[in-house]
Write a structure and sequence with these properties.
With 324 residues, the chain is an all-alpha fold. The protein has two domains: 191 residues, Four Helix Bundle (Hemerythrin (Met), subunit A), CATH 1.20.120.1760; 43 residues. The longest helix has 29 residues. The radius of gyration is 28 Å and the shape is globular.
């Protein structure tokens, strides 16, 4: 009598996932949408702190839903479309209405006075949010089409095409943050705020490369410095919240030219496409060293050819010998 064959073991990855677990990323996406809409409600009530808190929660949840979907292996076409639609509302419509309610629109009496004195400015204050929302929607539509492209370079995952929607939303809120940090000024005028919203919409829809910060690998030596910087940032955020947020927004704007420079260098150097950040820094150091050595050799060759050439590039006249 032969013994019964043992039952095949089923691994955790082979077990069928429940529908509730697979829908968890979509629930997080809807929570991000709810946070953005709640920020609009807080804006119309005039509570700026709650506006920034709910927008921060929306950005945090937006970054969490994709990671959660990849961790649970619950990626789907419906989830991608839902994420784009929620981003269009939470990071397109919400910051536009918040900026319009807190920076572009004034009190009813002041609004009537502005309409009588300069009706074009009042119209621009409403057209600017519309342009910003349209640019965010177009940016998300193009982002979805780029995901379907099979042939992408190895460095493509390190850069966004244009400013991403969560970052654009916080940049759109910069006039509100500046108004709370510095008070009334030229930065809080309806004209400047309208032009700022249009500029941020153009940056979001542009093809300028920006860093994703998702492929950054930290070494063991960099972790303590990062934790120390995080502690300083949190202390500054709790002590001077508006100034800290405004400084972070300026730092993000500064990194855009650096990202363009890094993208240009990577494109022109195919050998660095699959290299890590440390190897790329070593390549740049070696290239700068070779460039300096070539310049030094060129200067030496010029001095050998023209011995009377000064360091400044001017030719010195030969000295006349006195006759005895």
């Amino acid at each position: 009598m032969t013994g019964a064959s043992p039952a095949p073991t089923v691994s955790r990855t082979d077990r069928p996932r429940s529908k509730a677990v697979s829908q968890l990323p979509n629930i997080v996406t809807l929570m991000a949408l709810a946070s953005g809409l709640t920020a609009i409600r807080c804006a119309f009530s005039g509570n700026v702190k709650l506006v920034l808190i709910f927008m921060a929660v929306a950005a945090l949840l937006d970054g969490l839903d994709g990671r959660l979907a990849r961790a649970l292996d619950a990626q789907s076409a419906m989830g991608a479309e839902l994420d784009s639609l929620c981003d269009a509302i939470g990071f397109g419509v919400a910051p536009a209405f918040i900026t319009y309610a807190l920076a572009l629109s004034a009190d009813p009496q002041e609004r009537v006075a502005q309409a009588l004195s300069n009706p074009g400015l009042v119209q621009l204050a409403w057209i600017a949010p519309l342009i910003y929302v349209g640019a965010i929607v177009l940016r998300l539509a193009r982002f979805n089409t780029l995901l379907d492209e099979p042939d992408q370079a190895a460095y493509a995952k390190e850069f966004f095409v244009g400013v991403p929607a969560p970052a654009a939303a916080w940049l759109a809120l910069a006039p509100v943050v500046a108004l709370q940090a510095f008070g009334d000024g030229w930065w809080s005028s309806p004209l400047v705020c309208s032009l700022w919203l249009i500029a941020i919409g153009c940056l979001a829809f542009s093809r300028l490369p920006t860093f994703t910060f998702k492929t950054v690998h930290l070494t063991q030596r960099q972790v303590p410095a990062l934790l120390f910087g995080a502690v300083i940032g949190l202390a500054a955020l709790f002590t001077f919240p508006y100034l800290t947020i405004f400084a972070l927004l300026l730092a993000y704007l500064v990194q855009i030219p650096l990202a363009c420079r890094s993208h240009y260098w990577v494109v022109r150097n195919p050998q660095a496409w699959k290299a890590d950040a440390q190897a790329r820094r070593q390549m740049r150091r070696e290239r700068r060293l070779h460039k300096r050595q070539a310049q030094h050799r060129r200067r030496l060759s010029e001095r050998v050819r023209h011995p009377f050439v000064a360091r400044s590039g001017e030719r010195r006249p030969p000295k006349r010998r006195r006759r005895l």
